[in-house]
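Why do we care about 3D structure at all? Because function follows from shape, and shape follows, mostly, from sequence. That is the central idea of this module. The next example makes it concrete: a single protein chain, its amino acid sequence, and then its structure expressed as tokens.
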Amino acid sequence: MAKGRDTASRILLQNRPQGSLDEFKITGVIMKYKAFWLNDSDELEVIDQTLLPHEKKIHLIRTPEEAADSIKKMIVRGAGTIGSVAAFGIYLSAKSHSGDYESVLKDSDMIRKARPTAVNLEWAVNRMMQSLEGLSGNDLIKKARSESIAISDEDVKRTEEIGRLGCGIIKDIMKKKNINKINVLTHCNAGWLGIADSGTALAPVYEAKKQGIDIHVWVDETRPRNQGALTSFELSENGVSHTYIADNAGGHLMQRGEVDLVLVGADRVTGNGDTANKIGTYLKAAAAKDNDVPFYVLIPVSTFDFKMKTGFEIPIEERNEDEVLFVQGLDENNEIHKLRIPPVTTHAKNPAFDVTPARLITGIITEEGVVDADEKSISEKFKYPAGSQ
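And the structure:
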């Protein structure tokens, strides 16, 4: 085991998906399926996801400001990872302010506002601050540390259960269709980079691989930031058969019967089952519905926002147009370059997410079970009165 991880973090690393590579090197650090960890100085280290898949580098986070900045700039991304990094940002704030609650409270507001769409960010910050109420000094610092680790520890268990339940659905579909190989389509990246430690949408894929199921994944490129390349990176590390496709190819493949199942994650799901996920998810859901392809959303329960009645109340993040106008990649000499695509006079619009209406969703897979995407089913499953959000 490499330096730079506390005992609780080791527990997380040991729960990586079976069948994956045991380790890979990132700038001299031996790393297992974990996107962030505390180092020997009790500072946060994360994989810089803006550089993947072509460059593997560790980014150091020492202050709450740096934690918020890493979320805002998408150095870390994925609803679960954002929540965990936010929690550790509160811990870094507690240390920097010697356990002064009011100072940490101010920093919590800054971290909470780093990105608007993913509810796990707000959820994690709120949980951290509630756990720190009435504490000060070393007691507050110790609690901030243990609570931030607990959030990640719990995510590991959640993703394991999501993987188990999702794999059950994979096997059911294969039995129903009488097929020996299953083709899954996914959008964006919802694997171990996005939530500790197996991910959400990819957790059933890893579990299926572990169980010896012949599985192939169609990987949407997921413009404009090409998070599909992160999914390809993960699947390559885990030895999962996959093919990278243009975003607009998914509907064509569904029409031809080459997709058996669509699995996606989410950044926020409202009480009626509407789902906000990476831009382009709605089009995949519409195509899946038209072609009778099961479409599942996989999330931890913390991604539900029961206060919102419909998905159209969800704030949709509008990001810098340069993410659309420019692309980054390797040239024939294996050198990384950033290139502009349209004419220099052209501007772009860049909504980061869209909303998939509940009527297009076959089901929502959580660590607490599979639920239909409608208000009655969700309210009964998670014990809150329908219509009371």
